[in-house]
Amino acid sequence: MARYTGPVCKLCRREGMKLMLKGDRCMTPKCAFERRPFAPGMHGAKRARKLSDYGLQLREKQKARRIYGIVEKQFRKHYEEAQRRPGATGENLLQILEMRLDNVVYRLGFADSRSQARQLVRHGHFNVNGRKTDVPSFLVKLGDLIMLRENSRAKEYFKTVQEEIRRHDAPPWLTLDISSLSGKIVSVPSRGDIDATMEEQLIVEYYSR
Length: 209
What we know:
- The structure is a single chain.
- This protein has two domains: 9-97 and 196-207, Ribosomal Protein S4 Delta 41, Chain A, domain 1 (Orthogonal Bundle), CATH 1.10.1050; 100-185, RNA-binding S4 domain (Structural Genomics Hypothetical 15.5 Kd Protein In mrcA-pckA Intergenic Region, Chain A, Roll).
- Helices cover 40% and strands 8% of the residues.
- It has nine helices and five strands.
- A five-stranded antiparallel beta sheet has the order 2-1-3-5-4, with helices on one face.
- Helix 3 (53-68) packs across helix 9, helix 4 packs across helix 5 and helix 6 (101-107) packs across helix 7.
- The longest helix has 16 residues, at 53-68.
């Protein structure tokens, strides 16, 4: 499975904002963006030039791709699926990205970041509707139940998670059952439930060129 393996803090610096790619570390003084809030490279500290319309569209697409940790080929497939669905393509795209299994595991609080959630899914720690599912890009549906597998509960990591998850607030389109370490899709995420920093229309304009 193709994925980015380089330093993720450079991605935040390139996009000029925190993408929360390292979970709680991003909220500490150790965050690289706090220390160097400019683009990477020898010319990164110089004043940025004004971007063209194409540049703005590209940066927005790259930002969304990096937030969700998806390579270009897969992101394009999600966009094409969003086009086929009724309604606004941009909002459909964000809903598809939110309904990926790795993102749902992250939203439920089982992981500090989407990359960590992706690893947990790949290692087969979760069931969807009672069946083991180890594909991070699996798209969950309304009514689906995501549950930590029984043989994973004894692991030290999940014992810690069970304590920390009590302080976690799941988004309104998910319900979290702490006692059973499970979550359910109770509605399709609305635009207000999704990252407000993304301008999905710019992504649509990028692919509509």
